[in-house]
Specification:
This protein is α/β, with parallel strands linked by helices. Helix 8 packs parallel to helix 11. The protein has two domains: 179 residues, Rossmann fold (3-Layer(aba) Sandwich), CATH 3.40.50.720; 156 residues, Orthogonal Bundle (N-(1-d-carboxylethyl)-l-norvaline Dehydrogenase, domain 2), CATH 1.10.1040.10. It binds NADPH dihydro-nicotinamide-adenine-dinucleotide phosphate and 1,3-dihydroxyacetonephosphate. 1,3-dihydroxyacetonephosphate (13P) binds next to helix 8, helix 10 and helix 11. It is found in: Cytoplasm. Catalyzes the reduction of the glycolytic intermediate dihydroxyacetone phosphate (DHAP) to sn-glycerol 3-phosphate (G3P), the key precursor for phospholipid synthesis. It catalyses: sn-glycerol 3-phosphate + NAD(+) = dihydroxyacetone phosphate + NADH + H(+); sn-glycerol 3-phosphate + NADP(+) = dihydroxyacetone phosphate + NADPH + H(+).
Length: 347
């Protein structure tokens, strides 16, 4: 049993992951930045705002004081939205007294720097307080983990001991954790699939069928993401794993996905601002689309589907126009030679 703090009281960290850790008999402390939410959760015994259908474990302690939440913990699980990662690390630096392993479960890319989450954490955290950073990612809707449906994810770190530590922390009979040393690939897979989930939602909202969705998953989710990720140093094989094709399937084909749902409303013709007002939860794919569209230009990587989704969200192009443009692009062959891409990047 270890003492572990979960930071971020939304559906993923604050409910599902906190429940997994509690089921594994750890001493789990959940921190929310919102005092009203703490009070509400304690009265209701559930996270009524984000995942109202499940009862929180009685052993789960809820804090709005970060110093108390992290006192003497061995590890900290950060699961706040991407835009709140830096602020959360800065708060930690002020109150943390011991060195910890930081595990994160967030899925995004910072638009201004194009940093992955672990890069932001490493840049912000005082090195004497942060032993290592691990990403936990894979096909894992909070709605299903919280009712103990079988789920598989990957814990990735450059340091195998930290990945195994995370596997030990989370793994049980309904939550199976694999390890990986490809932190770049696992983080990019988890973040970039949200762009394609928006696209899958748009396609469904337009009334297109399974063929179009399969095309988006393979040409957008696998070809485009692998192309960019290989140049950023990821192992292309990671994308046939849980954090690649696994998370694409779960997010592009499920009504649980906030990204799919937001895309679906866009495809039905709603304006982006109205869509976001209705969601009430984080839709990470929006800012990740902005970041990745810029990255594609910086690294001169062909990502036409990502560019099309960017045009729908940020340039107000109609989804139908974008689909027509994509379908009438110059003809080309299907499989990239990754070794040529890598060579081009090294030249
Ligand atoms: N939901 C899922 O199934 C999965 C989600 N993820 C990832 O986990 C991350 C979090 O998602 P999820 O839990 O679903 O999000 P939710 O939208 O359900 O909740 C977000 C939580 O973060 C809190 N928050 C917002 N801003 C801050 C801040 N500045 N400091 C501290 N807390 C803050 C919110 O508090 P408030 O209510 O006050 O705004 C809320 O408790 C995302 O990156 C997502 O992609 C990964 C795997 C699965
Ligand atoms: O990442 C997820 C499942 O693995 C959840 O995706 P959404 O953020 O689209 O709900």
């Amino acid at each position: 049993m270890s003492k572990v703090a979960v930071l971020g009281a939304g559906s993923w960290g604050g409910t599902a992951l906190a429940m997994v850790l509690s089921d594994n008999h750890h001493d789990v402390r959940l921190w929310t930045h919102n005092s009203e939410q703490k009070a509400r959760m304690e009265i209701d015994g559930k996270n009524s705002k984000y995942l109202p259908n499940v009862t929180l474990p009685e052993t789960l302690r809820i804090y709005d004081d970060l110093a108390l939440a992290i006192d003497e913990v061995e590890s900290i699980v950060i699961v706040v939205p991407t835009k709140a990662i830096r602020e959360t690390c800065q708060k930690l630096n002020k109150v943390l007294k011991q060195k910890v392993i930081i595990v994160h479960g967030s899925k995004g890319i910072e638009p201004s720097t194009h940093f992955r989450i672990s890069e932001m954490i490493k840049e912000e955290m005082f090195s004497e307080l942060c032993d290592d950073v691990v990403v936990l990612s894979g096909p894992s809707h909070a709605e299903e983990v919280s009712v103990k449906h079988p789920t598989t994810v990957t814990a990735a770190s450059l340091n195998n001991h930290s990945a195994i530590y995370t596997q030990d922390l989370f793994m049980n009979d309904y939550f199976r954790v694999y390890t990986s040393s490809d932190i770049i690939g696992v983080e990019l897979g988890g973040a970039l699939k949200n762009i394609i989930a928006l696209g899958a939602g748009i396609s469904d909202g337009l009334g297109y069928g399974d063929n179009a969705k399969a095309a988006l998953i393979t040409r957008g989710g696998l070809a485009e993401i692998t192309r960019l990720a290989a140049i950023k140093g990821a192992n292309p094989l990671t994308f046939i794993g849980l954090s690649g094709v696994g998370d694409l399937i779960v997010t592009c084909t499920s009504v649980h996905s906030r990204n799919w749902r937001a895309g679906n409303l866009l495809g039905q013709g709603q304006a982006i601002d109205d869509v976001l007002d209705q969601m009430g939860m984080i839709v990470e794919g929006i800012s990740t689309t902005e970041a990745v569209n810029q990255m594609a230009q910086t690294y001169n990587v062909s990502m036409p589907i990502t560019a099309g989704i960017y045009d729908v969200i940020f340039q107000r192009k109609t989804p139908k126009e974008v689909v027509d443009d994509l379908m009438t692009r110059n003809r080309t062959n299907e499989i990239d030679d990754i070794s040529l891409l890598l060579k081009r990047n090294m030249d």
